[in-house]
User: What shape does this take?
Amino acid sequence: MRRGPLLSIAARRPVCSPAVHPLAFVGGTGSQGLGLALRFAAAGVPVMIGSRAAERAAAAAETIRAAVPGAVVRGYENAEAVARSERLFLTLPFAGLGRFLAEAREALAGKLVIDVIVPLVVRNGFFALTPVEGAASAGELIQQTIPAARVVSGFKNHSAEKLRDLAAPLEGDVLLCGDDDAARAEVATLVGLLPGLRAVDAGGIANARYLEAITALLLNLNRRHKARATIAILGLPEP
Amino acid sequence: MRRGPLLSIAARRPVCSPAVHPLAFVGGTGSQGLGLALRFAAAGVPVMIGSRAAERAAAAAETIRAAVPGAVVRGYENAEAVARSERLFLTLPFAGLGRFLAEAREALAGKLVIDVIVPLVVRNGFFALTPVEGAASAGELIQQTIPAARVVSGFKNHSAEKLRDLAAPLEGDVLLCGDDDAARAEVATLVGLLPGLRAVDAGGIANARYLEAITALLLNLNRRHKARATIAILGLPEP
Assistant: This one.
């Protein structure tokens, strides 16, 4: 029902709409960031890859260009990617989040910050959430640390491995939470650019703790069932 | 795909299989317990309602008989319901769990204990998990407190209101976790008796914390969307 057509690999022509201004992926050389950037590039959205090292960002951009002929993609150091975009995905590891926020605090003010981070540890094969100091989730930490940013947590429940596998159609729901209604709506528009996915409005940023819990559960399910699982919410009224 | 036929309201003839020995619902006069008992009664399974007060248990049993003509259902004080059944659902409020476990500790040894409890609080309209003393979830607390019980956490993500509405077909996945593989398989067989539901093996009891987190999320979604939502896991291999 909610599955769109199969993903076409070649980039679509960028549409002239506010939805397709460049998207930056801070820490976008990691698996989750690169996977999301690939999907958005394939949907015709210009993307920027941010990395601590400019040459790694450039290499990731080249990877995307090779996978998605015609993609509009550039690589930058993280700070420059932040400066050049009004809409950023934070896709760096949780371990690097505190330092990044301290450095990027002023540059992120007023921007749409899409938080994809999950604070995870693996112990004896069990994926567990690790406590976030001063907040109940990574999403809440980001919003508390940078009150002037428009933070939306989302895309936490889709497998990086599957995102990177452009031949695999996406499915399921992208739960979005954040305290700024308009920001959630903007991210929902972005979700709509990716065939097969549905955006679900999950309300305020305090729900980020539950989105992160679902990630840990899915990773445990993936390990047990050798899967790349995701979730769907059943029983919501049609929009 | 995974939806079975609509639920028939009249009880089915009990099948002669180990799957249909009586099921007891401790605290079964509450909304979640009564809803589950109604659904199992409608599926032809004999049920016992347990309550702190025998007369309230009897009244709940009468409610089930009225809704499901032909249902095999009896009401008992909780302790007697525990004594009379090898398979129990714990459907009492989290606030009553500690006292119940202290009293029922020996009686529960060796039994299949299906934990449906979620430690929740509501603050300013936001459903939040409340910390469980000495454990990361209600399910883990029960297993730690009574190591000799065969604890399976499950049925945490289905709306009590919808369970009680027998005209509403059920849908979605029942995530089951517990440290005893055979116990999880037994509960999966029980799930299979309820049309429309699929059992998903979610591994060890430590995953109960995530099942409880999903409950809180679903309650927040229900409030926002005026829904009775549940979840499905997408991308698991067919069994």
Confidence is low (pLDDT under 50) at residues 1-19 of chain A. The first strand of chain A starts at residue 23 and ends at 26. Chain A has eight helices and eleven strands.
